[in-house]
Amino acid sequence: MLASLSVEPAFSPELADPCVPDETEPFAPRPTPQRPSAPRPSPIPLAPDGRARRERGRPLLPSSPALFPWLARRFSPGEATIWAGPPVAVEPLVELLYAGSARARGRISLLEGGNRFHPYRIGELGRALGVDARETVRRVRLARAFTAYQMVALVERWTAEVRRHAPTLLVGHDLPALFTDDEIPPEEQAELLRRIARTLAVLLRRVRLPLLLTLGPDGPARFPGLADAGPRWADCLTIARGPTTLRLRALRDDARLTLVPRPPGQRGIEEFGGGSVEEVIAWDVPPRRTVRRSRSG
Fold first, then answer.
1. Quick check: 284 and 264 in contact, CB under 8 A?
2. Cα of 172 vs its chain's centroid, Å
3. Element housing 163 (H / E)
4. How far apart are the C-alpha atoms of 219 and 208, rounded to whole Å?
5. How far apart are CA 277 and CA 126, in angstroms?
């Protein structure tokens, strides 16, 4: 079965026009030699604290707003960072990450398993951060898979893709999403996901880039092999959404963060409380403009 790595999406000359793909590069799945995975000291393969975190030429994310430095501390070259939570909580944060990476002049190599990439929304976020919307989206090189077998093939070709196009961040968005087809026996689904986990471990040993893996509320439980055969983890974040907030909790240092909608300069009551381990950050990206005008006045 064929799969393709594509330069997608790329905006047409006018932002309002439909998003169209560039040339694609078809390839046939090729078997990857199996290598024994390195022994893990625990089921959760967090890398040791205190190691040098080498940056590759430029920061992963900008220094402001304050959300970005908090997130950047959760990444490390050659290791995976896990974001787990319902799509309604995880995906807005992923889109902010894409926009922040563009502001830092980074490039993302994205494998999309959930078919939920929204270029216009990402472009608007980039524009709110001061980056041209088309440039924001062009800095995400996207490969979509539509079957489980295509996803396996794309992961196995990821090393060659990364070496050709030199991204600063790898993102695997909901890779297990395609492994629920009733036509694939459960035992084969599990083995295919283990194969992906082993391939990701080899990939990160070769290219030494940070990798973000987004997962659903069940986290690594939906991804057999990720904890015991996959790459080491820099951190694991659980993300939950409230009526007006996003709450993040990092496994490594039990750091907790709440994102709240607050105008720039406005102070919150949490500043005057005592002893809370939770950090609160106001997300101060300008609100999305609307073309609708008020009829009042």
1. yes
2. 6
3. helix 158-165
4. 24
5. 31
Closest listed residue to residue 179, CA positions, set 141, 221, 209: 221
Question: In sequence order, what E strands does 58-168 have?
Answer: 80-84, 108-112, 140-144
From CA 59, how far away is CA 67, in angstroms rounded?
14
Place of tokens 């190599």: 109
The tens digit of pLDDT for each residue in 31-74 reads 444 444 443 434 455 666 544 344 445 789 999 888 999 999 99
**Cα distance between residue 220 and residue 44, in whole Å:** 10
pLDDT digits (tens, 9 = 90+) for 239-272: 999 888 889 999 988 999 998 876 555 555 444 4
Q: Where do the domains of the chain lie, and which CATH numbers do they carry?
A: 59-239 (3.40.50.300)
Q: What is the DSSP string of 203-252?
A: HHHHH---EEEEE-TTGGGGSTTTTTTSPPEEEEEEEEE-SS-EEEEETT
Angle (deg, nearest 10), helices 148-156 and 158-165: 50
244 residue type, one letter: T
| Helix and strand totals (H; E) in the chain | 7, 11
pLDDT at 1 over 80: no
Rg value, the chain, Cα: 20
